[in-house]
Amino acid sequence: MRQLQVHPASVEPAECRAALSRDGYVLLRNLVPRAEVESVAREVRQVLTRAGVCQPDGVLLDPSWSEKHPVFGQASRLVGFHRLPYGPQLRTFMRATFGERLYSLPTKILRAVGPSSTYTTSGRYAHCDFDFWQVDDMLTTWLPLQEIGPELGGLALLPGSQLGPPHPLELLPDEPAEWATSRFLPGDVLVFHCLTFHAALPNRTPTVRLSGDFRWQAATTPVPKELINGIPDDGGEAYAGALRNEPWWEPVPADAAIAAPRSGPPPAPRSALVAVHPDRFVAR
Predict the structure, then answer these.
(1) Mean pLDDT of the chain
(2) CA 57, CA 95: separation in Å to the nearest integer?
(3) Quick check: is 176 in a domain?
């Protein structure tokens, strides 16, 4: 397996846009303050520890653990976790690099993945986000909440796959030669395009691996309503009730475009950030 190219947090926006267009991703070292990320990891482990899921050091105790466990929702709602994409470093970088009208989608996704010997998470299947959401130029920022080396697994990408044809949804082999990963540190940010194929690597340790997915969208690009209001839809922006009094929180822009319900075959992607392979085009 290859190594992802690493950029310093001071990298120029134009270089990042070129890397995303060429490789489908940008990996930034130490963009977010490490102490903030590690604080969130401690909070998540405290929730899991109180529920008997793991030890304070993250070693799994409950072999039935998965992200369907009742306590997972409690950990996912932690205010500190939701704050991460609204911090000045990440928010400023994303807007300076990919557009001032970019906003963080409310549905933040905590990943708390146990040992692969206990279950296979859906993230182990190679996929791209466009195939699930059909949203043009959606960007994901993946943040490791702890140091994640080869044994703990982390995320792997297929560089350049955003330029290629569709791939089948299939379980990623343990050591895919053409794919790339890295040793990730708290504070790192991996940005990738919605057409970039990616998958989680197996967790070969006895501990729960912690990371977070935070998606970004231009306000002018339509997104499905469930990405704003969440599932189930309570009639308003997801988590707004819990976060609206936080000084760092931003609501979804009032003029953000909402996609009409779709019927028929999946649409072909359109992109201002990457070239789209002709095999992806079908009737809209």
Answers:
(1) 94
(2) 36
(3) yes
Burial class (CB in 10 A: 0-12, 13-18, 19+), 30: middle
Domain around 96: 2-250
The answer to whether the pTM exceeds 0.85 is yes
Q: Classify each residue of 249-268 as buried b or exposed e, where b means 16 or more C-beta atoms within 10 Å of its C-beta.
A: beebeeebeebeeeeeeebb
Per-residue confidence (pLDDT) for residue 167, from 0 to 100: 86
* 146 falls within a domain: yes
Q: How many domains are contained in the chain?
A: 1
The CATH number assigned to the domain holding 168 equals 2.60.120.620
Cα distance between residue 10 and residue 32, in whole Å: 12
**Is residue 262 one of the residues assigned to a domain?**
no
8 Å CB contact between 41 and 146: yes
Q: Is the peptide bond before 222 cis (omega within 30 degrees of 0)?
A: no
First to last CA, the chain: 37
List per-block mean pLDDT (blocks of 10 residues) for the chain, which spans 284 residues: 97 97 98 98 98 97 93 97 97 97 96 93 94 93 98 96 91 91 98 97 97 97 92 85 96 94 77 90 46
The answer as to whether 187 is a domain residue is: yes
Residue pair 112/75 in contact by the 8 Å Cβ criterion? yes
Tokens of 208: 């729960």
